[in-house]
């Protein structure tokens, strides 16, 4: 296992961003390469999800993003494709790319949100003896956090996922068919409550754990509205931290949208913000 605690923060950011893009790629049939300048993920069935549907700059490019001429040259194929194909792109850019952002604002493209990347510090140094008790037990004895282990339970997981994120119920079967193919690469986590003496079990929360390059990250953390503010999400987070540690992952992270206003919640759980990517909508006018 790699000892990430001796690496620079930039190394942790790198593996978290790679995890994020790999996770989002898993929701798509392929990656669209635009003139070798941009990589685009487009799932038309989930067109309104600007986290999963994203466009990023090819990291291997040698463009000077402090030069307006270079920026215009970089953006030309993306703008041209948007115009010709009447496509909409959600461009994710780093917070340090200020001149590129100025260009987008000048072109009247609106920032629609930000992705905040966080990590759990000193994660690789944790051992069984020093893992917080909260990561080893449930706060509520009637609550259990488990991993989905069959297709029928996945259907119930998806139902809670759609309810938690206000996703149209008509999309449940579409999402089921998509995620069933990911059963071996996603770990679907759910929180279950025994409402009446264990006879009336109900799934009330959900998340996905995704492993990539010695990094585990938590996605799609949601709770049914009527069960929010009852430590459901906290229990899922604690379970996930311990699950990844037992799998000997070096970095544990998660991403949240700025619009969800959950940064302070995660910081109280011990997470540290590592980066933020701004999302600009690029579309044909």
What does this structure look like?
This protein is 31% helix and 28% strand. The chain has 285 residues and is an alpha+beta fold. It contains 7 helices and 11 strands. It has 2 domains: 4-114 and 279-283, no CATH class; 119-275, Aminopeptidase (3-Layer(aba) Sandwich), CATH 3.40.630.30. The model is unreliable at 1-6 and 128-139 (pLDDT under 50). It has an 8-stranded mixed sheet, with helices on both faces. A 3-stranded antiparallel sheet has the order 1-2-3, with helices on one face. Helix 4 packs across helix 5 (172-180).
Q: Estimate what percentage of residues fall within beta strands.
A: 25-35%
Instruction: Please give the order of strands in the largest beta sheet.
Output: 4-11-5-10-9-8-7-6
* Shape verdict: globular
State mean pLDDT (0 to 100 scale).
Answer: 88
The tally of strands reads 11
Radius of gyration: 20 Å
Continuous helix count: 7
Task: Give the tally of structural domains.
Answer: 2
- CATH architecture classification of the largest domain: 3-Layer(aba) Sandwich
Which CATH class of the largest domain applies here? Alpha Beta
Helix fraction bin: 25-40%
Order of helices and strands: HEEEHEHEEHHEEEHEHE
Q: State the oligomer.
A: single chain
Describe the main β-sheet briefly. 8 strands, mixed
CATH topology name of the largest domain, in short, is Aminopeptidase
Taking the alpha carbons of the first and last residues, their distance comes to 50 Å
Specify the structural class. alpha+beta
Low-confidence stretches: 1-6, 128-139
In the CATH hierarchy, what is the superfamily of the largest domain? Gcn5-related N-acetyltransferase (GNAT)
